[in-house]
Design a protein that fits this description.
Blueprint lengths: L1 H17 L2 H5 L19 E12 H5 L4 E20 L5 E7 L1 E6 L6 E4 L3 E4 L4 E5 L6 E10 L8
Antiparallel strand pairs: 1-2, 2-7, 2-8, 3-6, 3-8, 4-5, 4-7
């Protein structure tokens, strides 16, 4: 498990180190505002979600009941990461390959993410992602969540 955590942290750190400042700023909301998510998808489709590492923050830094984890999500063409919230669950999402479209409660238009983009998810944001491309999109998701709660996130 420790080897997996070290490897996943190294993979994310390397990916972020090679992202150019221009890429890191890309993928931001081009038109802030509210998007109606009333008819958003609620079930995943064509998504593989694999935890590649996790750290108990209670034993590490005294934040009891919280975990830091990194997951690798592969979203097939036409695949959907369904509507979910980041209330009390901050995350950073790094697009490793492919491209994906985000539909966010904090942006009035869809947000395009391509390889090298990073997305900050926090402050009660609700959103979903759809792969409208022709190749799988691969993202690394690192989030902090309550370890004692059922985790309905994707």
């Amino acid at each position: 498990m420790m080897k997996t955590m070290i490897t996943s942290s190294a993979v994310l750190a390397a990916a972020l180190a090679f992202a150019s400042p221009a890429n890191a700023a890309a993928g931001l909301c081009p038109k802030p505002g509210a998007m109606n998510l009333a008819n958003a998808p609620t079930m995943p489709k064509g998504v593989t979600d694999t935890v590649i590492g996790a750290v108990d923050l209670g034993s590490e830094i005294g934040v009891n009941g919280r975990m830091l984890r990194t997951r690798r999500l592969v979203i097939q063409p036409g695949g959907i990461v369904p509507l979910h919230s980041h209330k009390d669950r901050p995350a950073l999402i790094y697009t490793l390959s492919g491209s994906i479209t985000e539909y966010s409660s904090a942006c009035s238009v869809p947000i395009q993410h391509k390889a090298g983009d990073i997305s900050r998810e926090a402050e009660g944001l609700s959103h979903y992602w759809v792969n409208h491309g022709k190749v799988p999109a691969v993202v690394l998701s690192s989030d902090v969540f309550h370890s004692g709660k059922a985790d309905g996130s994707m």
